[in-house]
Structure formats: structure tokens, C-alpha cells
Specification:
The chain has seven helices and twelve strands. It is α/β, with parallel strands linked by helices. It folds into two domains: about 5-100 and about 225-240, Rossmann fold (3-Layer(aba) Sandwich), CATH 3.40.50; about 110-220, 3-Layer(aba) Sandwich (Rossmann fold). The longest helix has 14 residues, at about 75-90. It is elongated, with a radius of gyration of 19 Å.
């Protein structure tokens, strides 16, 4: 029986867990525990980090895992690096499931930046009323921006420090373009700050920004480890099915 560890926290990870469980595999989904109310997933679920690549290597051996799928958020670079190291140490097959990034369309006013520090500096030049959707752990990068008001949208309460002038909106996608247009209009948003997370669930904010002519600061994805990478759940399932089975 194959035993698969899914490093999860994304919609794709939940979809993959359901597909592998339906295939009769033993699946454990690992969640970092940063979201207070995580959505349910098929199979076994563990909450919390591993404590680095050495601890993850031990965990994989202790639990008899035969394959690992890294289906974490495109910006979860630490766990991706730890998974690559641990799988090399255990000689385990590792597949990265990563949704494609967003593509600019005609009418977009994107400003691509390398990291959060550059994003904060760009806010100081471009915006006064900002919709900030970078995730609750990254808000501190904007704490020193004093001449802009921030609408901070996150699934759970963000970690301090926070910008001096802000409002918090706790919400979870999927979103619609109509609702995003209403949000931009109601709060008089003139700048959207986000990460290049990809996916359909939160993409309507980009369509709304395009329709309103709102500028977008887009944080580029970090470069991940050099591991086999696919863009769909179906491709991962095929790779797992092709692995030698263990009784």
C-alpha cells in the first residue's frame, strides 16, 4: 500500500487528497496550522510544522511514507525547500503541484516587484487607499507606510505589526468580479497589492482592478527547488499510480 504525504493548505491539495483516497491510497495531509479554521480534507490530517528538513526526514521514515506531494502555496518556500532536502535524504519521489501564475491582460496596470519590501516602497509612490491581500503573516512589511490607508483582507486575524491607518476584513474566497467591484468602489480603492498566487478563487480582484483602471502591485513568486513540477491534480495522480506499489 502506497503511503502519500501531501503538504497541503491549498484547494489543489484538498482535491488531490480526495482523488488519492478514492484510489485506495493511504493519504496524510499536513497543514501548517496558520489558518484557525482550515477546510476539511480526505484522509488523515496533521496540523503543525515539522521543525526543519531533518525532522521531516525522520517523520517520513517513522511513518513509512512512499511518496510526497508538495501542494503548498506558491510562496511557502521554506517547507518546499525542506521537502526537497528530506526526500533526497530518503530517496523518495517528490512531486510539486503548483498552480500557474496569473497573466497580465490588456488594460492591466501591473507593477511587478521582487518582494514585500519593494511592494511597500511601491505603495508609498502609487497609492493612498490600498486593498492588501498578501496574507496575514506578511502585513508587517507595510507597517511603516504612514501615508496610505489599508483595507487588509485575510482569512484570519493578521499578525502585528500593522499599518497605522487600516481596517481588517476577514473573508475567504472564492470571490466574484461583481463583489470585488463593489468592494473597490465602496472603499475608494486606488491600489491593489497582492502576490502572484494564481488560481481562479481570488482572480476576480484582478478583473475588477482592470475594469476600474486600478493599479496593481504584484509580488513575484520566489524560485523554488528544482523538483518535478506539474500544474494539475490529474498529473499528480498519474505519477502516483505509476510508482511501484508496496504491500
Amino acid at each position: 500500500m502506497s503511503r502519500v504525504l501531501i503538504l497541503g493548505g491549498t484547494a489543489e491539495a484538498r482535491e488531490l487528497a480526495a482523488a488519492l483516497v478514492a484510489d485506495g491510497l493511504e493519504v496524510t495531509s499536513s497543514l501548517a496550522g496558520r489558518v484557525a479554521q482550515a477546510l476539511p480534507s480526505e484522509g488523515e490530517v496533521r496540523i503543525g510544522g515539522f521543525g526543519g528538513p531533518d525532522a521531516l526526514t525522520w517523520w517520513l521514515a517513522e511513518h513509512g511514507m512512499t511518496a510526497v506531494v508538495d501542494a503548498t502555496h506558491p510562496f511557502a518556500h521554506r517547507i518546499s525547500a525542506a521537502a526537497a532536502t528530506a526526500c533526497r535524504a530518503r530517496a523518495l519521489p517528490l512531486t510539486r503541484l503548483e498552480r500557474p501564475g496569473w497573466k497580465e491582460a490588456p488594460g492591466d496596470r501591473w507593477h511587478r516587484v521582487a518582494d514585500l519590501a519593494e511592494a511597500a516602497a511601491t505603495v508609498e509612490r502609487l497609492g493612498r487607499r490600498v486593498l492588501l491581500t498578501t496574507g496575514r503573516q506578511d502585513i508587517g512589511a507595510f507597517a511603516a507606510v504612514s501615508d496610505a490607508w489599508f483595507l487588509i483582507r485575510a482569512i484570519s486575524l493578521p499578525d502585528p505589526p500593522l499599518p497605522i491607518d487600516h481596517e481588517i476584513l476577514l473573508d475567504r474566497g472564492p470571490y466574484t468580479c461583481e463583489a470585488e467591484l463593489e468592494l473597490l468602489d465602496r472603499h475608494r480603492i486606488d491600489l491593489l497589492v497582492t502576490k502572484d498566487s494564481g488560481g481562479d478563487s481570488t482572480a476576480p480582484k484582478l478583473q475588477a482592478a482592470r475594469e476600474r483602471g486600478t493599479a496593481v502591485v504584484m509580488v513575484t513568486r520566489p524560485t523554488g527547488p528544482d523538483v518535478p513540477t506539474v500544474a494539475s491534480v490529474a498529473e499528480v495522480v498519474e505519477r502516483i499510480r505509476a510508482l511501484p506499489s508496496e504491500d
